[in-house]
């Protein structure tokens, strides 16, 4: 009997893959990271520690295995760390601009001479700059005003929705839910630009280092986490009612505001087919702030590694 029991345990040990623990650094104040939480809690067969941070945490904390941010932060970090790799998306988000009709704004071109709330050096400012260029506006034609996002009403005085309400700014251009709060703040005076527009979308990605990818145990864990992440993302995409309350609690906002902002999010684990073209164009913006030359196309190609996706999904 004892021998049979040990044979059973041995077979179980052999057939059950051991998953190394992972530590992930994500910006916990944005909706984009929440599929990682659902993957951790519902689908991943292993230990995951998710801490506040991002891609930069890969280099400030040696215990971090994965970092998630927008592609602007990816490019900023690549400037100092050639061992950085983006290995797949969590979600793509179509940013929007909400403007105050009482400021004389009814078209995108009316933002000339206006004050636009956006976070400098981030995907927020890049979005505003890129989108307004389609209306013939240059950065010198408007003023970018720094502030903070808002996750929960009442929004503080230094947050963009509150600044929009007070007239300190005329518009907001960034990620959610601050834009949705701005829409609610203005009510019938809200003018929204950019729903589902294709000039820019945030590519919120998971990144790691070549050292982590070369470590067999860590690599195996990352592959397994991507499988779990895809299961979570599939629910976010097809059955959001099952996860939206948990997502709202995770970012300390309310379900109603996320329901309104949900349609501009495209959930799905993949490597965008145009990722290299996006990085080449966007690096011109990032390089200007980083005070360096823009990377060549060949250099930026090394930043992309789809091998984890290939292993996880046999593509």
Automatic annotation (TrEMBL):
Tell me the first and last residues of the signal peptide.
1-21
InterPro entries given in the database record:
SsuA/THI5
Q: Where is the SsuA/THI5-like domain?
A: 58-242
Keyword list, A-Z: Signal
Q: Which domain of life is it from?
A: Eukaryota
Q: Entry's Pfam families?
A: NMT1
What is the protein name given in its UniProt record? SsuA/THI5-like domain-containing protein
Q: Which organism is it from?
A: Daldinia eschscholtzii
